[in-house]
Each structure stands twice: as structure tokens, then as C-alpha cells.
Amino acid sequence: MRSRHGLFAALLVLTITLACAVPAISPASIPPPTPDTRLGTMVAETVSAALELTQQAQAIPTPTAPPTPTAEPTATSTPEVVDTSGSALRTEENGNVIFIDERSGYRIQVPYAWLALRINQQEYLDAWLLPEASNTAVQNILGDMQTMDPDRFRLFVLDINEEHIDGGFVTNVNVLWDDALEISLVDETDLNAIAATYPESEPGVEVLPVEIVALENGVTVGVITTRLPATTLDDVEIVVVRKRVFIDLPTGTLIITLSTTETWQETAEPLFDTMIESLTIGLE
Q1: Is 200 exposed, middle or buried (0-12, 13-18, 19+ CB in 10 A)?
Q2: Fewer CB within 10 Å: N-end or C-end of the chain?
Q3: pTM score, two decimals?
Q4: How far apart are CA 203 and CA 46, in angstroms?
Q5: Considering Cα of 230, then 27, then 190, then 174, what sign does the dihedral take?
Q6: For residues 6 and 181, is the Cβ–Cβ distance under 8 A?
Q7: Which residues of the chain have pLDDT under 50?
């Protein structure tokens, strides 16, 4: 059996979600919310300092020509950023987006109906200008993304269809790479150990039986699904469904988490499953 170095030290990190809702009973490690400061999303306790947006480089005028006047900023302009993410997003003719993570060596396809974003990259800045960004729920989830570490949270995928926003809850997927976590999927032992930590960090959560699944391409994944009653910022009672998929990579573990509501589970889960089936490990 493979080494499990770092498994138990990393268990609490795997409760991460970006869900625009708070649990009915807040975890002990998170201060109780007040009417003015209720959390818009459930995030891991270990996520820390907010990231700053990459600043646009200043152009240096040539010695033989006068400097070009700086254009006044407009409501439809965003700063250009330098991509240092070690990843790429490629849009195909059918509208699907391919995410390629060069650092950990995998690629995955995002359904065309969902919005794929990397923290503080150009597509993230452009997302603020979308018509859907006028919705407070979308603004909240975009804002919370800036608190995440882009070296670990490699990709976010949002369903910003206004009809699918459930009482302020935005269905989303986050892709987390933990290069220090080694997990065995030979049997359910490691998955059960991880699942056993959820009730402590998410009081009231219902943990469904864990699964080990072989994808059509031969990749083996572990699956933990949970259900949790929650209250949105709009004071709407919902049930948050999270489906976490664990993939053993040559270096570390990839955890891809779908967060949706019971209302939209039948719509979101098939798209998420298609996304998981598209996973390819190893880049040419």
C-alpha cells in the first residue's frame, strides 16, 4: 500500500466548498455569524490571507517619441494580467473549455454551460463585467474566490444561470490540488477516515456511504457525498449537496468538489459526472 504521509494532517482541508450559504449550525472553528457579517460561502478553516489582483504593468515610453497619454479607465475595461498559474484554458469549437494543469499533469473538460475561472487570471477579471455579475450572489462568490490560494485551488467552475441560483446559492465546482496528501484507493479505508472528519467541521452533515469508482478511461476515483441543511444570505432554507471526487496523482491528490442544492442536484450532477469522465492524467 502506498504511503499515507500527510493524510490525517490534511483531512480538515478537504471540507472546502464555495457555496454561497452557511450551515444551520456553524463549525466551532468559525466565529458565529452576525446579521451584518454572515459568511457567503463555506470555506476551509485553513484558507488564509486574501490575494491581491495582479497590477497592470506600466508601459515605458521610447526615447524618440513622447509618451502616449494614459487612457481614462472605462466601465468596460479590465487590467491585463500576466498568467503565472502554470495552467491554461482552451475553448473548443463546440464551446467546451479544456483546463490543462501543467503543474500536476492532468486535463479536464468543462461543460459549455458553466463558467471556468482561475483565481485572478484574465477570465476572472472579465467575469466581473458579465451581465450575470449584477446578481449579488455571483458577486459574493467571485469575491470569495480571491481568498483562495491559486497554487492549491487550481480552477473554479460556476453555474451563473440566474434561474439556477437557489435562494442566493450558486452551484459551483472547485478543483483542489494537495501535493502533500497521499491517498490510497485500493479500498475505502482512507476515504472513510476523511469522511469521518466531516461531522466535526460541518455539524448536522449527513455523510453517505463512500464509493470507489472506475471511470471509463480506466482511472480509479474515490467519491464522498454529503448533504447539509443550510441557510442562504437571503434567509432561505436549503439542503447543500456536495460530491467530492478524489484522484490519486503521481504527485499528491486532486479533489474535485461539486457544491449544489437538493433542488438542482439532478441538473448539476450529470454535468459534473461528465466533467469527471473527461479527466486525463498525464500530458503529452
Answers
A1: middle
A2: C
A3: 0.75
A4: 18
A5: positive
A6: yes
A7: 1-5, 8-16, 19-78
State whether residue 223 is helix, strand or coil. strand
DSSP assignment letter at 247: E
Question: Cell digits for 261?
Answer: 442544492
Q: How is residue 130 written as a grid cell?
A: 458579465
* Distance in angstroms (rounded) separating the CA atoms of residues 98 and 112: 10
Cα 216 off chain centre by? 24
Residue 118: per-residue pLDDT: 97
CB atoms < 10 A from the CB of 80, how many?
Answer: 11
One-character DSSP codes across 73-91: P-TT--------SSEEEEE
- Could you give the CA distance from residue 248 to residue 246 in angstroms, rounded to a whole number? 7
Long-range contacts: 271-276, Cβ < 8 Å, 24+?
Answer: 271/111, 271/113, 271/114, 272/173, 272/243, 274/109, 274/111, 275/108, 275/109, 275/110, 275/111, 275/157, 275/173, 276/108, 276/215, 276/221, 276/245
